[in-house]
Each structure stands twice: as C-alpha cells, then as structure tokens.
Amino acid sequence: MHDGPVQYVNLHEGKPPSASQVEMTELVLPNDTNLLGNLLGGRLMHWIDIAGAMAASRHSNRVVATVALDSLDFRHPVRMGELVMLKAKLTWTGRTSMEVVVRVYAENLKTGSVILTNKAYVTYVALDDEGNPVPVPPLLPETDEEKKEFIEAEARRSERLKRRNKEV
Ligand SMILES: CC(C)(COP(=O)(O)OP(=O)(O)OC[C@H]1O[C@@H](n2cnc3c(N)ncnc32)[C@H](O)[C@@H]1OP(=O)(O)O)[C@@H](O)C(=O)NCCC(=O)NCCS
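Above are the sequence and the coenzyme A SMILES. Below is the predicted complex in structure-token form.
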C-alpha cells in the first residue's frame, strides 16, 4: 500500500470513457443572466467548453485546445437561482483529437425537477509544451451506448472535416 498518485491504466493501452468523465455544477447568479433573468447563452457555452476540456485533459494528461463545437440548441431557458449540471464524457479519440459529449441539466432547487436542456459535441486537440498536436491514448468504449457513440462519432468527424475544408 502506498500513498502516491494512482495511475488508472497504462497510457499506451488506452482508457475507458469512465476514467475521464467530469461533472461540474454551477449556480446561476445575477451576473450570468440577461434582463429577463435567464441564463446567457454565452455563459453556458463557456461552461460547456470548460467541462469538455477538463474531460479531454484528464484523458490525455495534456493541455488541450478546442477546435470545433457542433451546433448547440437552447431548448429550455435556465432561470436565475437554478443549478446547471454539466456532464462531460469522451466519445471518440483519433490520433491527437478527442470528441467529448457535454450534457447540460437544469435543476430547480425549489421543486427538485431536473431537465436536460442542452447536448453538445466538442472536439479538442492535445498539445505539447510548444503547442503542437500530440498523440492521445486510445479510447476504449465499454458499454453498448459508448460503443454506439464511438461509431456515430466517426460520421460527425467526417462532416466536421468537410466543413473545415470548405471554410478555410
Ligand atoms: C489545435 C491546432 C494547434 C491544431 O493544429 P492543426 O494544424 O489543425 O493540426 P492538424 O491538422 O494536425 O489537426 C490536429 C487534429 O485535429 C483535428 N481537427 C482539426 N480541426 C478540426 C475540426 N475543425 N474538426 C474536427 N477535427 C479537427 C485533425 O483532424 C487532427 O485530428 P487527429 O490527429 O485525431 O487525426 C490548431 O488548429 C489551433 O491552434 N487552433 C486554434 C485552437 C484555439 O485557439 N481554440 C480556441 C481556444 S482553446
């Protein structure tokens, strides 16, 4: 028995999505809202980016840069005083890039109701100390849902790269 840090698995053998998943909770304060008392979209996008980056950094043990955020729909307003819970989990890894799904839930503390308000797919690239892309451990999906997400992520990635090649 030792007290030092525990390495979850050998980096070269890969890691399951559960090893890096992140849960982050924020309380919606007045400074996070518009004049109607609803959460600002930009603030939510910032939290999504942070939660996703933490999961990607945990997986790769690297600093990461955001390279793509898929479309984001705002289905329900989140009100001042509610809790926003963000659950981020890796869905796919390439050589240096990683896709993370971030699910956003709003919890009303008075009623206890929790609703899924947003879902976003964000792509990050792991960087070395000079800011160059660097290989990441492969993702090892375990559950049926994780295996399905991994296959679907390939299609999302090819759409993104098509978009990237058109735009630049
Ligand atoms: C991250 C960065 C250094 C990568 O450089 P690059 O020249 O694009 O490097 P590459 O072409 O080798 O791409 C690296 C990986 O990202 C992927 N990628 C790049 N752009 C992408 C996009 N729009 N969508 C999906 N994946 C993308 C590539 O496919 C590659 O993946 P792989 O190694 O898993 O096959 C560069 O794009 C950059 O600095 N971007 C700006 C990042 C930023 O400022 N973000 C906001 C603040 S964090």
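The chain has a mean pLDDT of 92.
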